Amino acid sequence: QVQIVESGGGLVQPGGSLRLSCVVSGSIFSIYGMAWYRQAPGKQRELVATIAGQGGTHYEDAVKGRFSISRDNAKNTLYLQMDRLKPEDTAVYYCNAPTTAQDPLWPWGQGAQVTVSS
Q: Are strands 67-72 and 57-59 parallel, antiparallel or unpaired?
């Protein structure tokens, strides 16, 4: 059974930085494209960034130039470096393997809370 554990969230001031990590166990991590999602209070979960198995990346406009997604296939770990954070980045951040269907490949993890506030 696949298990996803996100970590690295916290409270940061506007303009600050955080680095999120996501460890995936129980699956062959390296063969899958991966993604970070986020869900702000009262809003639907949305895609933030994606990375292919061998590293090609894509970012949603809201985070382009500020966030960087990366992966370490040897450690089954996905990362999200978040710089120049804004209050509107406040959300619970999740990782998963996207599919062409509405649902991602695996059950959601608990997520990592990111709060950007002065």
A: unpaired
The secondary structure of residue 30, as a DSSP letter, is: G
Return the amino acid letter for 13: Q
Mapped onto helix, strand or coil, the DSSP state of residue 86 is: coil
Question: What tens digit of pLDDT does each residue of 2-36 get?
Answer: 999 999 999 999 999 999 999 999 888 888 999 99
Contact 19, 79 (CB under 8 A): yes
Measured CA angle at 106 (ends 105, 109), to 5 deg? 140
Strands (E), 52-111: 57-59, 67-72, 77-82, 91-96
Number of Cβ atoms within 10 Å of the Cβ of 45: 17
pLDDT in tens, 58-86: 999 999 999 999 999 999 999 999 999 99
Q: What is the DSSP letter of 26?
A: S
